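Margin note: ligand = calcium ion.
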Amino acid sequence: MDFDAENTPSNPDPRETISEIIERRFSRRGALLGGLSTALAGVAEAAPMHGGPSTLTFAELPHQLAQTDAVAAGHQSRVLIRWGDPVLPEAPPFDPRRVTAAAQAMQFGYNNDYLAVLPMQRGGAIGDRALLWANHEYTNTNLMFPGMGTSSQARARVSAEQAEVELMAHGGSLVEIEREGGSWKLARAGQLNRRITATTPMRISGPAAGHPWMRTNADPSGLRVLGMLNNCAGGTTPWGTILTCEENFNFLFGGELTEPALAESHRRYGIVANPPYGWHRHIARFNRTQEPNEANRFGWVVEIDPYDPQSMPVKRTALGRFKHEGATYAMAPDGRVVFYMGDDQRFDYVYRFVTARPHNPANPDRNLLDEGTLSVARYEADGTMRWLPLVHGTGPLTEANGFRSQGDVVLEARRAADLLQATPMDRPEDVEANPINGRVYVMLTNNANRSAEQVNAANPRPANAHGHVLEMIPPGAPDRPDHAAETMRWGLFLRAGKPGLDAGAQYHRATSEHGWLSCPDNCAFDSKGRIWIATDGAGSAAGVADGVYVADTEGRGRALTRLFYQAPTGAEVCGPLLLPDDSALFLAIQHPGEDPGSTFENPSTRWPDFVEGAPPRPSVIVITREAGGPVGS
Ligand code: FEO
Ligand code: CA
Ligand code: CA
Ligand code: CA
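Resulting structure:
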């Protein structure tokens, strides 16, 4: 985002662990942390443009900043769906000069983020047709409507009518896609096509359902809410549903709040009287003076059943309320399902949810997400980490500290995690298990606010402008890791930034002058267990375009990142999604043209259409190999 979105910390006391311990560890080991003897044990080899010891064979792109995008030679890129394209059959054609709420409610929303590609039938395999789900995270008011000026001007001066369009531009889209000529295209709208917006009725389940803080004038039951907001990344479930995660909802609520306990709680989530967006001036439920509790109904993980167009989305409150990046699952050996989650704010935390019962594929329990244990991560300097349960009545989570129920705990998950002394992180984005080596990767995007006194073992750099990637190692064999274990080992996979220029940047030694990255955000794993990292913020942090970088996670090419895709200026790359056979890579290109001074009339890019007079359009693209076969190879 182009304003201080995730970047205003609201954790009042980001504890530091003892920096002397870290110093000692660094000087003793002379390498990274956590007892990973293989970490970055790279071998210097030549010819990194062709891979060096990497198992990836594509020719690496050069770093650059351009109006259009680029992909490694031998690959083709195709635009699959853009902001304004039809999702429902009755959607009118897109006209960027006359966007209406009614049209937007049937068209592809703005700022696509998380992507899922699902088989046409629940539990089936992906054939020549499939379902594509995309989140729509937020709106660039200045690039959506003419005559609005720059970003901050536009958000503040948004009209009531434009705010209604923005409500419809949030949420998610479900569309049918089909194979064509070795790639994929949008299919004619099918029966499962669906738009979810910031107005779609949703059910609230789990410990916070019906809680007094969840009740509003429009919903005295505290069980129904209209819509979801700022859905960033997400995940799927073993029972064939989609999880879509509410992140920076705080920027859509405004107005003064007087009730002290609630005001304190809102402060911890960064909700302020005068936010960057002007919705609260037009729509009563976004104004806390009129509806103090509406904001409590956002910041959750939402479950959507793509196979039942009539199904009501469900906010699963057992997974806690915070600025959720994503929620990705891994199976524990006993069949319980483990969801890894990041709270994307400077000095906030990494979380996990373990279902109370195992998943039964023969007879799935569709409410498995309502019961289980939410935990938060504490990383120790000795290379171990512990999952601290957020369970009402245990430790400090009692009435003495204002927690009267598990509903209180999930509603104020951040404050509960503060009391448990979780480790304040450098903005946790995707947290995802590698299905091949069994390790769990945490994208820590950056944290320029961390002072030298606030460094800890897991966040070892002060003024961390470029972020790092942390690796957790559950106990058990790599093909049978115990993701439900209370303790794990951990280490750092890489520290981002430009080697030689940015203090502490660290990769495989053979990483080329183009292979270094800045601001890791989303990730995916291919069928060989290699990590595909998408970045967000490299333009302002490092002066290079955001992109997709690929590295081995094991062997001689471990942490040798290579640049595979370069985004158009102003855009971040989200989603990365590989088909199970690696034959296609789907990417969500979010906020193209989000550069300082960019306007509807004079944007920094008009990607992907490059139509004079028209603004850029956030779009989902699909990359395949010209010769067929696995991308990147
Ligand atoms: Fe929406 Fe954390 O990125
Ligand atoms: Ca993100
Ligand atoms: Ca991901
Ligand atoms: Ca981000």
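The chain has a mean pLDDT of 93.
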